[in-house]
Amino acid sequence: ALLRVPGIGSLTLNRLLSRFESAEAVFSATRSALGEIPQIPQKAVDQIITGPNLQQIQQDLSWLDQQPGRTLLHRGHPDYPSLLLEIHDPPPVIFVNGDVSLLSRPQLAIVGSRNATASGVAFAREIAAQLAVTGIVITSGLATGIDAAAHRGALQATGKTIAVTGTGPDKTYPASNRKLAEEIQTTGALVSEYPVGTPPLRENFPRRNRIISGLSLGVLVVEAGLQSGSLITARLALEQGREVFAVPGSVRQPTSRGCHRLIKQGAKLTDELSDILDELPNGLNLLPTAVTPHPAAANTTAAQQVLLEKIGYDPISMDTVVQRSGLTAAEVSSMLLQLEVQGVIAHTPGGLYQRSC
Question: Residue 233's closest CA among 250, 249, 216, 247?
Fold first, then answer.
């Protein structure tokens, strides 16, 4: 009921619960007592005095009852993750669709650009799979690009993954990730602090980032521009006392600049699994993992390997590949097509090619 009061965010709601000790006591409080709460808007006081909006609450109760595996956790619930309680602004209530126990398992957040490069997507997928094999839960935000790649990597390794969303628990954003969300819910968990019906408002996504980092032992940023929301997650992780890892990239790639800034500021430069495992706390009882080469790259011919070396990891035109390799345009075109089918390179906007592994 308090979550549904207009004008109340998690900070004010937490202040109310701290002052009055229970939600029932908040709704029994006098107007003058409520007015003593810092930054509480008048419309919120009016709504609390009026009483709970039972019609809105019924939407949440109906969602919870529709199918098994849907849970509402509050800060006093025994399944509320203890690590999340340590942050400055823990969500007073979280809706969980899936395996609640995963929220208390060791997690690593993997975040990054929505407009990620092919190589960034491939790295996020591979490192997520390697981490998932050790028993670490992969946590991210269900966005396109790096987030989705991290979720898929964990799922492909038969590991566990958690998606923290910026909408109500009944909605999926972006809609293109609806199938991915269904897969996550089946073996992992979808988490939201927003009540049923909440649309994908712009301001919700930076807010949910504190939950992504708060649930996790550390945050890995794979690709991020200088204005990326992933840098917000990294900053929140530092404030919460979590580890921050960043993957370096090409100096010409805009989505590498945020990672380079993080590394300059002290984030752990990360290009392989051991860089992360070495920084995690002892006693996690992680399973051993063998790092294997990307299967697509392992199946390339010697001639294709030579061409890949000429291509490099920056986006490149076919004309430049022809010039570097000394091959004819027909030979290069044929090999590029084969490599693209194998998933080793990707065709990027503007007609350029880029290695994905």
Answer: 216
Is residue 322 within 8 A of residue 332, CB to CB? The reply is yes
| Angle 337-119-241 from CA coordinates, rounded to 5° | 165
> If you average pLDDT over every residue of the chain, what do you get?
91
| Token pair listed for 313 | 């990891």
Q: Indicate the residue type of 125.
A: R
Model confidence pLDDT, tens digit, residues 295-336: 555 578 888 888 888 887 677 888 888 888 888 888 888 888
Q: What is the pLDDT of residues 178-217, one digit of tens each?
A: 999 999 999 999 999 999 999 999 999 999 999 999 999 9
Q: Report yes or no: 269 and 248 within 8 Å, Cβ to Cβ.
A: yes
Alpha carbon of 241 to those of 206, 277, 283: distances in Å?
18, 17, 18
| 100-187-72 Cα angle (round to 5) | 25
Q: Cα–Cα distance between 40 and 17 in angstroms, integer?
A: 13
d(CA 345, CA 339): 6
Helix (H, G, I), strand (E, B) or coil at 353: strand
